[in-house]
Amino acid sequence: MTVSAWIKRFLPRGLYGRAALILIVPVVTIQLVVSSVFLQRHFEDVTQQLTSALSLDLNLILDTWAADGPDAARALADALDIGINTRAVEPGYQRWFYDLSGVVVIDVLERAIPGLAGLDLATEGREIALLVNRDDGAVTLSASRRRVSAPAPHQLLVIMVATGILMTLVAFVFLRNQLRPIRRLAGAAEAFGKGRPVEYHPSGALEVRSAGRAFLDMRARIEGHLEQRTLLLSGVSHDLRTPLTRMRLALGMMEEGPDRADLSRDVDEMEALLNTFLDFVRGEALDDPVPGDPIALAREVVENARRSGGEVRLTVPEETAAVPMRPMAVKRALMNLLSNALRYGETASVSVALIDRAVRFTVEDDGPGIPENRRADALRPFIRLDQARNQNRGSGVGLGLAIANDIARRHGGSLALGHSSEMGGLRVDLTLPR
């Protein structure tokens, strides 16, 4: 696995998640860089300078104590706002774990004040207390914490983080408003692909509006093409049925004989071709998408096949669900699949499975099946696989699977051919989204 493929596994797949990631990463990176580089160095320098200044005052008091005595040292300490021997300090260095500036304070005072034995930075009163060992005894010194570090340095970090979160939330609101038209466009395109056109009006940025108008133009052209095709073939049906009717009348007036029988078979075949072809091209005009029960529909198709003398097994789940579909179109597709199964096999099996966000109808038979290299051709219109299927069981024009495939695609689903491991013949999976 390449590095790019490994990274893509952890990245969001949706546009909203990726846009949010593009928005958050720069903000967080800038805050981390500013806080870790600029602020850290700034407060370290400020703390070092303040602590160095305090160390000069402390050394001055200690030198005065040694030269002029305790009284002079206390007078100087009072003038410098530093306490002497006002509290007890334990040996060692004490600080809170989150006190980062205390590390700098300890380092500077340890180098600047000789005899430093203890340093307490964890006092509740925001003081710094020192224990210094001298030849004449230990001395404790205390001063305000403000003398060695900047007052409330965390306030700048809190303000920076709070401002960053606030602006990120504001940016999320604008981002959601900008992505909403794209989601509406994707939803309209997906619904149209499933045969369920929804009302859509272009909105949003100029590029999104342009894509929305292009989608509406494309949808109008496709709908116009389908309507024109239906009207054209309806006219063709009317024009062709008239001469076929005249031919049947002429055949009825002819005397019985071989010629009359041959012409009658030709007329029957022409009429069958015409009806099947019109079923194929007018599949989208059967009905409108409505919530339907796939299990009840499968039971109805199987019962009709059994009444016609077919041996069909039915397997359905206990639970059911409403699936948006064109019931008459799906019924026609199942009837075509089941009639093909019974034509080329002795028995057939129909099963319904409710899978994640889809429903799958499976039709299997015990016939000769279709070779894998011919299955793509079997879904094409007017293709008859004489070498693959048994033509002695009936005749067709090669539109049964093509009609079912066309109906599946108009629902946004798929039709897959395979080998039936249970019955040994052809397996057809009709999958519709729900």
Going by helix content, strand content and strand pairing, the class is alpha+beta
What's the pLDDT, averaged over the residues?
Answer: 81
> How does the major sheet shape up?
5 strands, mixed
Shape: rod-shaped
How many distinct helices?
11
N- to C-terminal distance: 34 Å
Question: What proportion of the residues is helical, as a percent range?
Answer: 55-70%
* Oligomeric state, counting identical vs distinct chains: single chain
Total strands: 12
The share of residues in extended strands comes to 15-25%
Task: State the order of secondary-structure elements, H for helix, E for strand.
Answer: HHHEEHEEEHHHEHEEHEEHHEE
Show unreliable segments. Answer: 387-395
Radius of gyration: 43 Å
Task: Provide a quick synopsis of the model.
With 434 residues, this protein is of the alpha+beta class. It has helices at 3-8, 15-68, 70-79, 101-112, 154-193, 206-253, 258-281, 294-307, 327-344, 375-378, 400-410; strands at residues 83-84, 92-94, 116-120, 127-134, 137-144, 290-292, 311-315, 323-325, 347-355, 358-365, 414-419, 426-433.
What labels would you give this structure?
434 residues, alpha+beta, five-stranded mixed sheet, 11 helices, 12 strands, rod-shaped
Protein topology:
Elements: H1 3-8, H2 15-68, H3 70-79, E1 83-84, E2 92-94, H4 101-112, E3 116-120, E4 127-134, E5 137-144, H5 154-193, H6 206-253, H7 258-281, E6 290-292, H8 294-307, E7 311-315, E8 323-325, H9 327-344, E9 347-355, E10 358-365, H10 375-378, H11 400-410, E11 414-419, E12 426-433
Parallel strand pairs: 2-3, 7-9
Antiparallel strand pairs: 1-5, 3-4, 4-5, 6-8, 9-10, 10-12, 11-12
